[in-house]
């Protein structure tokens, strides 16, 4: 734990969301919005399926962007109606080197990132996606 009570509480909330609410995490090469194919995504939460799709960066699955995307999508699930700006702001503070998650906490989340990509993308009508 980090020693910061608020940060550790946020870690616990996100761990609970990951363990109890998310059914699957997929790694997809070239992830894009299903209805706006030109727009690339770093991650996508499918609320109805409790699934997270993460874009595989060209640098491989160990790239920090993919971990940041996972946390971002978990925040969407945990915080519900929070705005995209609020989620991005919180995500940024959670990854701050001095005041954010410890390396141990980041490694905990990283172990949930799949090693292999899926060929299929999210199949949805954009209801319940963030």
Automatic annotation (TrEMBL):
Q: What is the lineage of its organism?
A: Bacteria, Candidatus Giovannoniibacteriota
- Write the protein's name: Uncharacterized protein
Q: Which organism is it from?
A: Candidatus Giovannonibacteria bacterium GW2011_GWA2_44_13b
């Amino acid at each position: 734990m980090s020693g910061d009570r608020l940060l550790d509480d946020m870690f616990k909330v996100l761990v609970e969301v990951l363990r109890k609410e998310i059914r699957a995490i997929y790694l997809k090469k070239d992830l894009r919005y299903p209805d706006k194919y030109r727009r690339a995504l770093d991650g996508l939460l499918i609320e109805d399926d409790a699934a997270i799709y993460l874009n595989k960066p060209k640098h491989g699955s160990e790239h920090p962007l993919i971990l940041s995307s996972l946390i971002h999508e978990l925040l969407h699930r945990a915080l519900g109606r929070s705005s995209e700006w609020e989620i991005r702001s919180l995500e940024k503070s959670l990854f701050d080197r001095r005041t954010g998650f410890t390396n141990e906490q980041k490694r905990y989340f990283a172990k949930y990132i799949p090693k292999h990509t899926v060929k299929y993308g999210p199949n949805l009508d954009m209801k319940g996606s963030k």
